[in-house]
Write a structure and sequence with these properties.
Distance between the termini: 25 Å
Strand content: 15-25%
Helix content: 25-40%
Shape: globular
CATH architecture: 2-Layer Sandwich
CATH topology: Peptide Methionine Sulfoxide Reductase, Chain A
Radius of gyration: 16 Å
Order of helices and strands: HEHEHEHEEEHEEHHH
Structural class: alpha+beta
Number of helices: 8
Largest sheet: 6 strands, mixed
CATH superfamily: Peptide methionine sulphoxide reductase MsrA
Number of strands: 8
Number of domains: 1
């Protein structure tokens, strides 16, 4: 069943306190990027660690129903995808550099989801908000395709930006709130072993 381990972990939760720290307003030059990469829990840590990233939120993008919930998105009856909104300082990190991080977080050759999470809500995508971002995303995707890193075609979609809705509080910084569940899920999904094989990332 799709995302069975993912759903099982959620079912074991009884009470979770939001661990997101209160933050002040971002600087005037801050920009945002929205990326979908399968389970949004799993792609948040690497962006949180990146110098120049001001804050991240996991949530939903790509659909039209207002105020989507995790249950609605997980029903696979909408066009929403689990996503991450990254607020960053372009003087310290570029959109292109964010994409360099992104490619190492996903399997860009997988079209039906990411790893063991299968379904429309887990499909990878780069949401672009203007022509400049579209050109950068297309060039980054082409660079990856020409790198010879993957034997299969790069199928990650580049889509027009849409409204991003933050997910429920218990999903934010899940790797901090529920470290044991997070580690078990990453290991069980096959994401960590894939990253180590393709990029030499430590398990």
């Amino acid at each position: 069943m799709k995302g069975l381990f993912h759903r099982f972990l959620l079912a074991t939760l009884v009470l979770i306190v939001d661990g997101t720290a209160a933050q002040g307003p971002p600087p005037p030059n801050a920009r945002t990027a929205v990326l979908a990469g399968g389970c949004f829990w799993c792609i948040q840590p690497s962006f949180d660690k990146a110098p120049g990233v001001i804050k991240t939120l996991v949530g939903y993008c790509g659909g039209t129903e207002p105020n989507p919930t995790y249950e609605l998105v997980g029903s696979e009856k909408t066009k929403y995808r689990e996503s991450i909104e990254i607020t960053y300082d372009p003087a310290k990190i570029s959109f292109d550099q964010l994409l360099d991080i992104y490619w190492k977080e996903i399997d860009p050759t997988q079209a039906d989801g990411q790893f063991t999470d299968i379904g429309p809500s887990y499909r990878a995508a780069i949401f672009v908000s203007n022509d400049e971002e579209k050109k950068i995303a297309e060039a980054s995707k082409e660079k990856l395709a020409r790198s010879g890193k993957f034997d299969k075609p790069i199928v990650t979609e580049i889509l027009p930006g849409m409204r991003f809705y933050p997910a429920e509080a218990y999903h934010q910084k899940y790797y901090q709130q529920n470290a044991a569940h997070f580690e078990a899920f990453e290991e069980g999904s096959g994401r960590k072993s894939f990253q180590k094989k393709m990029w030499g990332k430590s398990p």
